[in-house]
Design goal:
2 copies of one chain form a homodimer. Chain A folds into 4 domains: 13-100, Uridine Diphospho-n-acetylenolpyruvylglucosamine Reductase, domain 2; 105-221, Uridine Diphospho-n-acetylenolpyruvylglucosamine Reductase, domain 3; 225-331, Alpha-Beta Plaits, CATH 3.30.70; 333-429, Alpha-Beta Plaits, CATH 3.30.70.2740. Chain A is 37% helix and 20% strand. Chain A contains 17 helices and 18 strands. Chain A has helices at 13-23, 31-38, 58-70, 123-131, 147-152, 160-163, 166-169, 198-202, 236-248, 261-271, 289-305, 317-328, 330-335, 355-367, 395-414, 430-437, 440-451; strands at 27-28, 51-54, 75-78, 95-98, 105-109, 114-118, 135-136, 170-176, 182-184, 211-218, 220-221, 225-233, 255-259, 279-287, 312-314, 342-349, 373-378, 383-390. A 7-stranded antiparallel beta sheet of chain A has the order 15-12-14-13-17-18-16, sandwiched between helices. The first copy, chain A, has a 5-stranded antiparallel beta sheet with strand order 5-6-10-8-9.
Chain lengths: 465, 465
């Protein structure tokens, strides 16, 4: 992969004056603030913006964009900073616009099962707000990310198998464009055939085509009954086949996560648990009590036929949390396999018929590695993660991890899969985007050039022009 | 609305020679063939292409595009010709490329619940092919359209409420671009965060950004049990409230259609039936036998609480067909309210909380009209159609219909709805696209200019440059 070079230059003095006048004490030049906004996961060198602005309204973002574009200065939208492919690093300096204080829930329409929120609203905040109305927003990427950031990286997570990803969850966006205008990409109707799908174009564009300031989201009623289940399997393929068969016969699994044997060992150690140290599936079922009971009975039968062990399940909130504890702590359990280690997560997604093979080949690769790594995934989508526990003082480990990651991505591409199911391209996967989509990337570049001719919106991300 | 002028000129002689050499007897200059490809619904004047080519492969489409673009001649993709906003009319002449003979089912992957088909495959053909594998493709816009055409207009139909629209149904597209290259927009993974969502950009672009030659689709298992039900309501709001409440509590309605009283009267007359002539809901439920029974019991209860009459239902195929007969014949029943009349269908989509009001206001408008018209809709999405029965020899009726349609669209826009839920913009709704999305249409134009700088791919559709 070609090296990403951090280019930056001091901001023009008149821009500094104008931003200072417009944003007062929400305009920051200090190093601590810039460092916070320029740091990414361990495997990327810090790339600091030249300034940070906390925006409080779409109108302020318009002002900021007009000032920066007039001065040829890059703008990088920033939410919670939880993305993991360097998506918010200031690769060419410029101004990081922090939207986390735009955290108003603008409207909830219970009859329409939708809501409109500012980009800085976090998903946990939204779900707390919705709970008393009997509604919830399903997309759960793990981190307590902002809704704007989740839209920008096309996030998904544990229940995409039932409820889809941000691609399906968003009805409409309010966006500030590189020419300093504010647009709304769609109305609030559930569906539309009116013109190009700008909503979906902005979702996953990582802020390179526009800055999302408001998001209108589909919501769902909190199901009457929720049950969780855990089942370990003698073989990886037994676990995957159980899920494939369940989906094929139409069981609307709300969540189904796979953890490999090493991951289960890590969790047992970290959380002092005693799960069998085998490939394990974690399920969640939503519906009426009768329908959930029927789903559980069918899946338990499928699991049994595929070499599954005891099918532990519960519909009581406390017991459900206990059953899922291993899944929730999986990442930290892996990172802490060695004291002082740092974590790095990568992700690929393949057609589900290839998932057992892809995970199996990857496991062989990990077994030969000199450092610990685990596999966990959203098995219903064919999407899985490898989490590495890296010694930050051993640069040779990073070299080794990069080689394993390269083989992982190439394996997924060879199976007609994608180099990233939900993390995005950012800085980390640009060469593989080209390997994956070839000339289609030229079409993306043409769109970028047309909408952002000066290449100022999060420049250097997804691809270089 | 500004008039759409049909501009055309004779094809350059060397292009005629080259196309004739490349396509032999699949290259047509005759008037009958050109007329067939240039005619749309009654309310658009015919706009004939200068030639018609039947393509048999993506490579042939590449050849055609390169020849036409070099000669500055427009290219209009054509499938089954069932779109209804003039989407395939040759507004500026050029070559209509008929893809209906590209009807191979390239691959079906039962384990992945997906398939890849050429653009000319029709949805009924696909479902016949899939039936023995226990799979089906759910999107049902009524007409036996081609999959490529359905992708191009972002089609949906009766079961979008459960299974989504073409936006959700397509995993990946093979597309020939205006620069004469062939791209694939995505891999076959269920989800991806890799770069801009070119798949969704092409879906609904009506052939203005690329010619779709292959489509990879999500499939579903044929449900174990299917039941249908019909229930008439004293009030429109009672019918709509029943659906809203059912969706809110999470009942996964597979289909729910609304027919107004006039539509029911038309159906009774046309098909010699004796339904109550009241607002009527037609349901379909999918699932396990127990889950379907539970869904029916709950919906019957909701219907009863909302002033619904007898809740007729059946799970036997023959009886189900009988129950749904009125829905299937609705369009023809309306058109044939007067002998010799022609039909015209329009569509809007609003947030479901505004649907009863929007239909109610529209009904009052139709009651004051001099010609018959009925309302039917995909009530779960907030999407409904008005079908007019027009005397083709009375031009004043077309003027009246256009005025009613204008008020309908403006009413939907005022409710934060869209000017088209599933028919597309084509020639018919261009001014309303601007009314709906404002400056966002400029962004669409910028994308069009970047990808098709000579404006040769289905020019004059969606917007004029």
């Amino acid at each position: 992969m070609h090296p990403i070079v951090h280019e930056s230059r001091a901001l023009p003095a008149d821009l500094v004056d104008a931003l200072s006048a417009a944003f007062g004490n929400r305009f920051h030049l200090g190093e601590a603030m810039r460092t916070q906004h320029g740091q990414s996961e361990a495997h990327f060198a810090p790339m600091l913006p030249d300034a940070v602005v906390f925006a409080h309204s779409t109108e302020e973002v318009v002002t900021l964009v007009r000032l920066c574009v007039a001065a040829d200065v890059p703008i990088i939208p920033y939410g919670a900073g939880t993305s993991i492919e360097g998506n918010t690093a200031a690769a060419r300096g410029g101004v990081s616009v922090n939207l986390s204080e735009m955290d108003a829930i603008v409207a909830v329409n219970p009859d329409d099962l939708d809501c409109t929120v500012q980009a800085g609203v976090r998903r946990e905040q939204l779900n707390e707000h919705l709970r008393d109305m009997g509604l919830f927003f399903p997309i759960d990427p793990g981190a307590n990310a902002t809704i704007g950031g989740m839209a920008s990286t096309r996030a998904s997570g544990t229940n995409a198998v039932r409820y889809g990803t941000m691609r399906e969850a968003v009805l409409s966006l309010r966006v500030v464009t590189p020419d300093g205008r504010e647009i709304r990409t769609a109305r609030r109707a559930r569906k539309s055939a009116a013109g190009y799908d700008l909503t979906r174009l902005m979702i996953g564009a990582e802020g390179t085509l526009g800055i999302i300031t408001e998001v209108t989201l589909r919501l769902h009623g909190i199901p009457e009954a929720i049950s969780s289940a855990v089942c370990s399997f003698e073989t990886l393929s037994g676990a995957v086949d159980t899920v494939v068969q369940a989906i094929q016969i139409g069981i609307p699994l709300a969540r189904v996560e796979i953890l490999d044997d090493v991951q289960m060992r890590a969790v047992n150690r970290w959380s002092k648990l005693d799960y069998p140290e085998l490939t394990t599936l974690f399920f969640e079922f939503h519906g009426t009590p009768a329908h959930v009971a029927e789903q559980i009975a069918t899946v338990a039968e499928l699991a049994d036929a595929n070499g599954g062990g005891h099918f532990l399940w519960s519909n009581l909130p406390e017991e459900r949390s206990k059953l899922w504890k291993a899944r929730h702590e999986a990442y930290y359990a892996t990172v802490n396999l060695r004291p002082g280690a740092v974590g790095w997560a990568t992700d690929v997604c393949v057609p589900i018929s290839r998932l057992a093979e892809c995970i199996g080949d990857t496991k062989r690769d990990l077994e030969a590695a000199t450092l610990p790594a685990t596999i966990l995934g959203h098995v219903g989508d064919g999407n899985f993660h490898v989490v590495f526990s890296i010694d930050p003082h051993a640069p040779e480990e990073m070299v080794e991890v990069e080689a394993i990651n390269r083989r992982l991505v190439e394996r997924a591409l060879a199976m007609d899969g994608t180099c990233t199911g939900e993390h995005g391209i950012g800085l980390g996967k640009q060469d593989w985007l080209v390997a994956e989509l070839g000339d289609a990337v030229d079409m993306m570049r043409a769109i970028k050039r047309a909408l952002d001719p000066k290449d100022l919106f999060n420049p250097g991300k997804i691809f270089t022009l």
